[in-house]
């Protein structure tokens, strides 16, 4: 990629949050080439709530893998997707991830709706634009987005949509809904 | 994980990476955003500064702009380690670092967002 001086590369960051097993990896993988990204932390709270506890208990440092995807919109304009680590003990990572983020997709599973409460609280507090995408699993009951909005006590301007993140078209719609929402908030803040 | 078969679980995953950076965890790379864009400047390393193979790789990877996250993922090294390596390269003037634009913090500008929406539709 060659960038002229007047056309510096622009990189944008979108976060994909939600409880463990809700489909964050699937969503990132459906729209981009997914790659692992490792970070590290000192364990202060040995292994509590870790997805995979094999061998972790005896370590004082561990690596945390995040899902990381890249969508090249055009030369010099790239959108990066980051799947946030699922556990609340990784908040330290969230602060870094959410800094300057374009927005966040909060994935929800209607069978475990409470799993996405911490994510919603987090983005609401920081004023990060976010949407709620309800991932429709095969055997889960399908609810109207408005019912989900009420259950989650969301502000009326937060978009809520049903999706099937295994399908690329559906995953694309989720991201488009988020960027449209971020654009709307940007315009509202300007005028 | 076939690359790592010589490391058993007891070794822990961060031993070798931190040996790479001689145990340091702080550097001028600390403040680099995950999506700060790194570009090799093309300057030649000074004779006294011997670059490690990882730093040589970073310079090759960043002939075209790449983000900190791209570099960490491509090198398969933890972010903290990569930031130290990048900090050293920056101190030597071998890479330039472009933090995400200030305009990306109140969320990029309108034109860029519209471009992203159209780009996503066309995926």
Short note summarizing the structure:
The complex is a heterodimer of chains A (191) and B (123). Chain A is α/β, with parallel strands linked by helices and 191 residues long.
CATH class of chain B: Mainly Alpha
How many structural domains of chain A? 1
Strand arrangement, major sheet of chain A: 2-3-4-1-5-6-7
**Percent in strands of chain B:** 5-15%
Give the tally of β-strands of chain B: 3
Rg of chain B from C-alpha positions? 17 Å
Q: State the name of the first-level CATH class of chain A.
A: Alpha Beta
Q: Biggest interface in this structure?
A: A-B, 52 and 42 residues
Strand and helix order of chain A? EHEEEHEHEHEH
The rounded distance between the terminal residues' Cα atoms of chain A is 36 Å
Mean pLDDT of chain A: 83
| Sheet with most strands of chain A | 7 strands, mixed
CATH topology of chain B: Arc Repressor Mutant, subunit A
Structurally, the number of domains of chain B stands at: 1
CATH topology of chain A: Rossmann fold
Secondary structure layout:
The complex is a heterodimer of chains A (191) and B (123).
Chain A: E1 10-18, H1 24-31, E2 33-42, E3 61-74, E4 77-83, H2 91-98, E5 103-108, H3 117-126, E6 130-135, H4 145-152, E7 160-163, H5 168-190
Parallel strand pairs in A: 1-4, 1-5, 5-6, 6-7
Antiparallel strand pairs in A: 2-3, 3-4
Helix pairs in contact in A: 1-5
Chain B: H1 15-20, E1 37-40, H2 53-61, E2 66-67, H3 68-75, H4 79-91, E3 95-98, H5 110-121
Antiparallel strand pairs in B: 1-2, 1-3
Helix pairs in contact in B: 3-4
Question: Can you describe this structure?
Answer:
With 191 residues, chain A is of the alpha/beta class. Chain A is built from five helices and seven strands. The relative contact order of chain A is 0.18. Chain B is mainly α. Chain B is elongated and about 50 Å long. The chains are: A alpha/beta (191), B mainly alpha (123).
What keyword list fits this structure?
heterodimer; A: 191 residues; alpha/beta; Rossmann fold; 7-stranded mixed sheet; 5 helices; disordered N terminus; B: 123 residues; mainly alpha; Arc Repressor Mutant, subunit A; 3-stranded antiparallel sheet; 39% helix; 8% strand
